[in-house]
Structures are given as structure tokens and as C-alpha cells.
User: Which sequence fits this backbone?
């Protein structure tokens, strides 16, 4: 297995505060990879560094062998890295299907004028987007709520919607930031099945951060433990 | 006239003093509730009108009130109180109910308050929309100093600004009230848990900011003796830009920014009047592009 | 396409057009010229309000200088028609040229929108408000100082080309185009920026590009509206495009509902009619005398009422009349 994502000597400081220190690790293609560690140990910062929200103070991020360090987040996403958020960031006033369609928009080739005039090629393409969005919705069991405003969905459904939205960008690597946060044991069990299904059906690599040890130990094939920005296992 | 003369420096500092007093209100309110109080320039206008009205009321009912420093002082206090009162009223009725709504709603409300004050005053018959001359409350004297002509007005402007700014700095740095203000600007919820009456502190901030704007209104009325209900728009905008230049939310920054603005505008104006009108916006665009946090401001990190 | 059905929006537009035409002074004359001008003005404000809604409501940015863009459109198209081409509204063949001039005015505004939008869109809402407000003031100052277009006197003698059918056509096309935009992939990308900019970026949306796009398209249509207004009033004056008219358009957008094109259309009509009604009503009020001074109740009270209206909307109905909803007429049908 080759490394899909390769972090090389990555460090990040906030002012003088060290958030992530000299990280080096590889996420191989096709695995479910877990990153665990206590609060404030730099897990979310790591995700923010990979997805380009922050630029690492030192070190490099390689994705499929390409250096993506310091690229703009949307470029990184378009290149095949998708993520979810620990504290949900749903487009609350948009419908469920539109939430997913947003994430597919950059694959649409219709230019502005084709869209404004609603030419046939545009309609065809929108139809494809719609079909694909509906498939994702079905997979997440959200079909009853597809046209509801997303903010009216229950919490567990929103978590699933965020995963669906990440998958809609057609990623090769999905970063899940505490996917089980706020879930009850039943929901967590379902989530574990879902994560495996995502990996198998979409042929993606999953990289997740979790507190929930049971989930990590059950699902993850590789685990890395960090504490205060230092690797301890 | 030489563009970079001592006279220009004095004129620039004088204008800067007025901007500084307005800018402080913007920056304090922004620092504490993260609101650009659009109506702040109108508090300044209100101060000028309050001073104007006081003078004429005194003249009508206490006919023998003599002009001079005593009257100036009384009128200054009235202008400050008027600015403070209107600032607190707008806070209570327009901004407070929206405190926990999206930030832009308060901004739009502030635009509404600003429009209301401007149009109410121009619609209100005894005031009206037209330009009025501001009375000479204080006889003007000219002094020669270092090749420049300096009037006692210049000294009043500089002195009042200096006294108020020193007072504010002491208040914020040394007093318990100042400590509470700084705490609220850092974290409202934590301050509440520490037993600070957050709304009272916010109200006081508006009070101080409004009183400074009122003082600036009087000084501007004295110095450039014409007033109208829209007089607050441009100085308000320029003072706001000064606050951004210094780093919005930062008190010394607002003072620094305002004096730079006053000097820049005076110099640009001597060069070309179109440039004088536009220099503030040029400064704004440069600051936002080069250093959006301003000269003394710190970066506020968004929590992700 | 077996059973062809006239799209609802086209139908609605046609019905409105036919009714107004029948009532117009040219036909039955049920509406006099004065009323026609108010309807024409309303339609121009429809263009202004929905184009501002694209920037403020759909893309979630904040512009306070929308009339600045309209000024660019007004002056550019006005210069073309009155100074360069010397078009004559009595010559039918000049109308296509006029419409091209209006579009050129729109393009001019779009270019300015790009110049303003590109550097300033790195800023967040409240800063953006100030920059756009400053931009409006700069435009006004510049126009005041260009003698070629009349300086402080304004650009006079613009031919009266803005007839009802032409304004109607432009307003209708604006509604159609912006509706199509909002309900497309590009529009959804813009909406997602309003909802959550960071999440939008992490769905692969080039947020800067879409924000600039929103600004440029909004500016383009504002420029069109400005051009139409100038050719309705036969003049363009710097004071028509200051902060206050911009604030009026802003009130329309907020009253109608941020993000609702339907709301903006309704509010543009309601408030334009209300403005006229108040003006007439206040003018009719008698003068009164206090302490031997005679006072007239001035039309400034209209603006006082609007200011109070804006504050009340924000305090008690922040989401406006329509919220983010659209009338069925403006929704492109999707099978469920």
C-alpha cells in the first residue's frame, strides 16, 4: 500500500503556543485511520492544516505525492480531500438536497451564461447532479427529508448529512472530525457500520479523529495517539 | 502656502483632535459589542446642536450671559451630556434587543438610527435642513507662534481632546470600571459569571463614547462655524476610518489613527481639494489591503 | 415536450404587462401619466432591489453603495445617448441603440464592481459596509468634479427613452436571469457562502470567486437600473446616487426578506408607491404657525418614517415579509 496522505515534519504555532509539533506520519490508501488524543492535543488543528485552513509553520503535507502545503482549502477539496466538522457546519437554510448539491457544484461544467439561460446542456448536467445527490441521500436514509430545510433535521441526521456532503465532492480521502460526538450508543454503532460502508462503497480512505475509544478500536485499522502536539504512539 | 509648514501641522493636529474624540467612541463600542455604530457621527451632530440651542436659550432667558471661557465650559458640558444621552437611548432601544441576533442586524439598525437622527432634525421645523452659522461663544484671538497663526480655538481643541483622552486612558487602565470594561470586551459570558453587570458596562461605554462625540461636535461647531443635520456623516466616516487605521477596538490606536488622518487630510487638501475629500478612503483601502488589523490592532482568531 | 405549458413566470409577467398597457394613457387612460411614472419607477427599483439582494441576501455580503453602481450605469449610458450618439426617442430605429447603451452602462458598472469587489471582498460584513459606503461617496465626489458630465449640475438633456415596455422588458429579464442564477449550481454556491463561509470553502467552493461574481452581477444590473432611471428622468445628478437612495434600496431588501427575490419585488413596488403617497400626503398638510413663525411640514418626514420602519423591521421582523421563501411563480419546478 502506498501512502495517500503523507505528513512530513509538520509543526504549527499560535503565537508562541505550540499546537502541533513535528508530526510525521503516513495514511496508507484504503484504510480507516484513527487519530486519538486528549482535548487540546492538536487533533483538529491537524485537520485544519491538512485542509488548508491554516498553513503549517514548518513541514509539508503531501497528497498522492503532490505537495499541497499552503494551498487554498477549496483547491485541496477539489483535489480530493473532504472533511466534516466537530461542531456541525450545515447550510441550515438550504434544503438537504441543496446541501449536497453545493458540494458537487465544482464538477459542473456549465458556465455562467449557460446556467443563466438554462440551455439544454445545463439542464442535463443539473439532472445528473440531482440524481447523484439523491443516491447519497438514500444511502444516508434521509430521503424523507430531502427537500426540508436542513436546520430542521435532528442531530444524528445532520451528522450523516455532513458525511454525505463530504462524499459529494468525490474525494479520495475523507477526514471525519469526531463523527460520534453527541451520539448515543445505538447511533454510534450505526455510525461504525456507515464508516465501513463508506470506505467500501466509495473506495475512499477514511481518516478520523475520535474520543470514543470503542469506535476507534472497532473501526480503525491503524491508530495514532498524540498528546500536546507530540506523537506518543 | 507651503504644504508641509508648521501651520499645516497645527491645523492637522486640530482636525485630528476632533476625529480622535469621535473615533474613540467608535472603537470603544466596537471593542465591547463588535458593532460599527453608524449613528455615532450623528451623536456628534447632536452635540453641536445642543451647544447651539443652549447658547440661544441662555441668551434669550438670561440675557446678560457674557461670552467667554465660562460659557464655553457650560456649553461643552451640555454638548457632552446630549451626546451621551442619545448614545445611551439608542443603545437601550435599538441595539440592546438585538444583542444576540446576527451581527448585521444591529448594523442595519444602526443605519436606521442614523437616518432617523439626520432626517428627524432636518424635518423638525425649528431646526430644518439648512446650514446654520454657529455663534461665536468665545471671542477669537490670534497668536503668532513659530511662523504660524494659532488661535485660542486651536488651543481649546487640543486641550479638551488631551484632557478627555488622558481621563479615558486613566479610567480604562486604572479604575475598577476600566477593568470591567476590558473584561467585557474580552468575554461577555465569563464577565457575567464573574458578577459584572455586562449591560451596565455596555451602557456606560455608550455614555462615554457619546459624550466624547458630543464634545467633538461643540469643538467642530466652534472651529468651523457652520452646522447642519448631516454634518456628522463625513467626519463620522473619517473618524471610523481612523479607528480602523489604528486598529479597531484599540483605544490608543484610535487616537494615533485620528491624528494621522487629520494630518493626512490637511496636507492632501492643501495639495488638491479632490484628493482632500478622497484621502480618507484611499487610506481605508490601503489599510484593509496591507494591514487589516490596523497599526496597533491584534489579530482575532476565529474558532474553528 | 408534448404538452407545452407557458412557464408561470412568463405568464405572470405578460399578465402584468397587458393590464398596465390597457390601463395606460395610450389606451384606456385609466392610469394617468403620473401613475405610469410611479409604476415605471417601481420596476426600476425592482431591478435595484433584487440585484442588491443578490449581493446582500443571496451571497451574504454587505453593500451600502449600491446606488454608486447605478450612478456609473446612468452616467455611462447617458453620455453615450446624449453626448456621443445624440439619440432621439422619436426615431424608432434609435431604440435598439439605446438598449445597447443601457447594457454598456451595465457593463461599466460591472467593471467598477469588479475593481471594488476584488480587493474588498476579503473583508467581513461590517468592514465591507464601510468600504462600499466609502465607494459610493467616492463616485459621488468624482462625478461632482467631472465637468464633461456636468459636475455638480448633473448630466442634463438625456433623451426620454425609458418607456414602460422597455423598462418592463429589462425588469422582467433581470428577474428571470437572477432566478435562474439562484436556482443553479452557481447560485447554490453563493447561497452556501451566506450560510457558512468556511464550510462552503470546504465543499470546494471558490468563495472569493463567487463573492466577486455576486458583486459583479449585482453591479451590472444596478448599472442597468441606473441607466433606465436616467433616461426616465432625463437627467443624472450626483445627489441621486448618494448614501440615502442606497439606504432606500437596502430597506426594500430587508423589508422584503433577505434572500427572497419575491420579497424584493413586492417591497420595491410597495415602498415606491408609499414614497409617492407620503410625498403627496405630506405636501397636502396645511402650514401651521408657532410663535409667529410659519412652518411647513417637510417631505423629510418621509425619510423619518422610513428610518423608523427600518428599525422596527430589524427589531420585530428581522427576516422581512417573505423571509427566505419564494413565491411559487419564482420557483423552477423540480420533480420530487
Assistant:
Amino acid at each position: 500500500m502506498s501512502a495517500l496522505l503523507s505528513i512530513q515534519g509538520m509543526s504549527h504555532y499560535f503565537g508562541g503556543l505550540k499546537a502541533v509539533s513535528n508530526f510525521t506520519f503516513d495514511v496508507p490508501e484504503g484504510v480507516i485511520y484513527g487519530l486519538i488524543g486528549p482535548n487540546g492535543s492538536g487533533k483538529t488543528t491537524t485537520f485544519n492544516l491538512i485542509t488548508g485552513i491554516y498553513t503549517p509553520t514548518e513541514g509539508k503535507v503531501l497528497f498522492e505525492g503532490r505537495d499541497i502545503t499552503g494551498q487554498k482549502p477549496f483547491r485541496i477539496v477539489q483535489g480530493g480531500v473532504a472533511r466534516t466538522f466537530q461542531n456541525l457546519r450545515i447550510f441550515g437554510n438550504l434544503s438537504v438536497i441543496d446541501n449536497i448539491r453545493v458540494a458537487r457544484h465544482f464538477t459542473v461544467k456549465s458556465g455562467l451564461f449557460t446556467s443563466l439561460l438554462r440551455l439544454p446542456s445545463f439542464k442535463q448536467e443539473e439532472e445528473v447532479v440531482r440524481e447523484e445527490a439523491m443516491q447519497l441521500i438514500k444511502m444516508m436514509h434521509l430521503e424523507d427529508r430531502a427537500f426540508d430545510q436542513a436546520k430542521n433535521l435532528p442531530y444524528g441526521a445532520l451528522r450523516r448529512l455532513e458525511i454525505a456532503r463530504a462524499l459529494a465532492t468525490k474525494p479520495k480521502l475523507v477526514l471525519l472530525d469526531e463523527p460520534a460526538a453527541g451520539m448515543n450508543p445505538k447511533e454510534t454503532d450505526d455510525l461504525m457500520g456507515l464508516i465501513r460502508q463508506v470506505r467500501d462503497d466509495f473506495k475512499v480512505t477514511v481518516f478520523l479523529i475520535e474520543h470514543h475509544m470503542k469506535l476507534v478500536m472497532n473501526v480503525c485499522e491503524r491508530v495514532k495517539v498524540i498528546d500536546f502536539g507530540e506523537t506518543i504512539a | 502656502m507651503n504644504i508641509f509648514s508648521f501651520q499645516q501641522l497645527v491645523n492637522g493636529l486640530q482636525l485630528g483632535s476632533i476625529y480622535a474624540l469621535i473615533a474613540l467612541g467608535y472603537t470603544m463600542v466596537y471593542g465591547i459589542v463588535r458593532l460599527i455604530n453608524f449613528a455615532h457621527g450623528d451623536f456628534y451632530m447632536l452635540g453641536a446642536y445642543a451647544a447651539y440651542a443652549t447658547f440661544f436659550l441662555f441668551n434669550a432667558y438670561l440675557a446678560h450671559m457674557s461670552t467667554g471661557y465660562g460659557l464655553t465650559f457650560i456649553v461643552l458640558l451640555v454638548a457632552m451630556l446630549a451626546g451621551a444621552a442619545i448614545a445611551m437611548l439608542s443603545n437601550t432601544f435599538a441595539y440592546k434587543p438585538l444583542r444576540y441576533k446576527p451581527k448585521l442586524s444591529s448594523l442595519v439598525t444602526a443605519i436606521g438610527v442614523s437616518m432617523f437622527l439626520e432626517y428627524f432634525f432636518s424635518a423638525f421645523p425649528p431646526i430644518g435642513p439648512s446650514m446654520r452659522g454657529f455663534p461665536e461663544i468665545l471671542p477669537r484671538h490670534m497668536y503668532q507662534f513659530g511662523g504660524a497663526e494659532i488661535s485660542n480655538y486651536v488651543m481649546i481643541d487640543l486641550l479638551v481632546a488631551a484632557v478627555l483622552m488622558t481621563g479615558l486612558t486613566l479610567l480604562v487602565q486604572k479604575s475598577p470600571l476600566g477593568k470591567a470594561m476590558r473584561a467585557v470586551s474580552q468575554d461577555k459570558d465569563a464577565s457575567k459569571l464573574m458578577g459584572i453587570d455586562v449591560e451596565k458596562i455596555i451602557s456606560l461605554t455608550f455614555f462615554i463614547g457619546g459624550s466624547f462625540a458630543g464634545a467633538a461636535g461643540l469643538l467642530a461647531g466652534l472651529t468651523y462655524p457652520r452646522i447642519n443635520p448631516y454634518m456628522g456623516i463625513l467626519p463620522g466616516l473619517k473618524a471610523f476610518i481612523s479607528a480602523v487605521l489604528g486598529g479597531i477596538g484599540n483605544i490608543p490606536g484610535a487616537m494615533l489613527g485620528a491624528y494621522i488622518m487629520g494630518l493626512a487630510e490637511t496636507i492632501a487638501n492643501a495639495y488638491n481639494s479632490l484628493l482632500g475629500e478622497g484621502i480618507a478612503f484611499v487610506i481605508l483601502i490601503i489599510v484593509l489591503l496591507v494591514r487589516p488589523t490596523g497599526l496597533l490592532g491584534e489579530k482575532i482568531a476565529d474558532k474553528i | 415536450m408534448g404538452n407545452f405549458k407557458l412557464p408561470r413566470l412568463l405568464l405572470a409577467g405578460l399578465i402584468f404587462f397587458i393590464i398596465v398597457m390597457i390601463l395606460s394613457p395610450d389606451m384606456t387612460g385609466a392610469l394617468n401619466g403620473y401613475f405610469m411614472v410611479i409604476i415605471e419607477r417601481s420596476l426600476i427599483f425592482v431591478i435595484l432591489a433584487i440585484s442588491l439582494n443578490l449581493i446582500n441576501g443571496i451571497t451574504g455580503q454587505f453593500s451600502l453603495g449600491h446606488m454608486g453602481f447605478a450612478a456609473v450605469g446612468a452616467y455611462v449610458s447617458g453620455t453615450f445617448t446624449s453626448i456621443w450618439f445624440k439619440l432621439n426617442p422619436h426615431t424608432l430605429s434609435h431604440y435598439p441603440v439605446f438598449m445597447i447603451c443601457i447594457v454598456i452602462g451595465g457593463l461599466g458598472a460591472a467593471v467598477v464592481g469588479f475593481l471594488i469587489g476584488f480587493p474588498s471582498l476579503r473583508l467581513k460584513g461590517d468592514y465591507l459596509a464601510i468600504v462600499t459606503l466609502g465607494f459610493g461617496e467616492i463616485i459621488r465626489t468624482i462625478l461632482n468634479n467631472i465637468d464633461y458630465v456636468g459636475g455638480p449640475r448633473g448630466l442634463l438633456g438625456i433623451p426620454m427613452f425609458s418607456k414602460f415596455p422597455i423598462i418592463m422588458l429589462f425588469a422582467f429579464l433581470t428577474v428571470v436571469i437572477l432566478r435562474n442564477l439562484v436556482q443553479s449550481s452557481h447560485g447554490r454556491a453563493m447561497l452556501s457562502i451566506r450560510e457558512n463561509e468556511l464550510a462552503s470553502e470546504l465543499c470546494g467552493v471558490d468563495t472569493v470567486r463567487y463573492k466577486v461574481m455576486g458583486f459583479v452581477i449585482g453591479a451590472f444590473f444596478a448599472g442597468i437600473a441606473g441607466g433606465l432611471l436616467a433616461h426616465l428622468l432625463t437627467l443624472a445628478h450626483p445627489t441621486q446616487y448618494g448614501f440615502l437612495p442606497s439606504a432606500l434600496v437596502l430597506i426594500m431588501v430587508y423589508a422584503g426578506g433577505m434572500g427572497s427575490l419575491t420579497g424584493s419585488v413586492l417591497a420595491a413596488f410597495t415602498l415606491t408607491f408609499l414614497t409617492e403617497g407620503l410625498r403627496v400626503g405630506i405636501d397636502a398638510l396645511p402650514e401651521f404657525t408657532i410663535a409667529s413663525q410659519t412652518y411647513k411640514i417637510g417631505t423629510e418626514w418621509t425619510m423619518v418614517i422610513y428610518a423608523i420602519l427600518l428599525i422596527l423591521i430589524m427589531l420585530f421582523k428581522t427576516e422581512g415579509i417573505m423571509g427566505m421563501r419564494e413565491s411559487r411563480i419564482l420557483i423552477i419546478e423540480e420533480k420530487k
User: Anything to note?
Assistant: The radius of gyration of chain B is 19 Å.
